[in-house]
């Protein structure tokens, strides 16, 4: 019997990422450049923490911690999965509409995806700051979405 009794409420991509969160947790190694980005929904509803390790040119490892619905957990998993191995410069933004379409995220969850985008942008700013020679960096944002 499946753990997901409401499987019809979520797309197969959401169910897969939610059931197998490969990128959940903390960085597993040390990297020359490390950064984190955070975003929190007003009132403490959804909380996102992204961490990344880089060699200065590409994402070597990207991890997340999310307090939120299965859609945002799956979106964070997909974002981390697709970022690893990619050049940092190419991923300063991501296409939220593509991510929403891939996971069939309902339009009423757009605010949560925007929160993920805020955390991602904070992470990228942190990586830029860290790569400029200051070591580790943190960025955060508290949003009212």
Strand order in space, largest sheet? 3-2-1-4
The topology string of helices and strands comes to HEEEHHHE
Given helix and strand content, the structural type is alpha+beta
How many H/I helices? Answer: 4
Kindly estimate the percentage of residues that lie in beta strands according to DSSP. 15-25%
Largest sheet: 4 strands, mixed
Residue windows where pLDDT falls under 50 for at least 5 positions: none
What Rg is obtained from the alpha carbons, in whole angstroms? 15 Å
Beta-strand segment tally: 4
Summarize model confidence as the mean pLDDT. Answer: 85
Q: What portion of residues is helical?
A: 25-40%
Q: Terminal Cα separation, in Å?
A: 36 Å
Shape: globular
List keywords for this structure.
145 residues, alpha+beta, 4-stranded mixed beta sheet, 4 strands, 23% strand
Give structural notes:
Helix 1 packs across helix 2. The radius of gyration is 15 Å and the shape is globular. The chain has helices at residues 12-19, 70-83, 96-103, 110-134; strands spanning 33-41, 47-54, 59-67, 136-143. It is built from four helices and four strands. The chain has a four-stranded mixed beta sheet. The chain is of the alpha+beta class and 145 residues long.
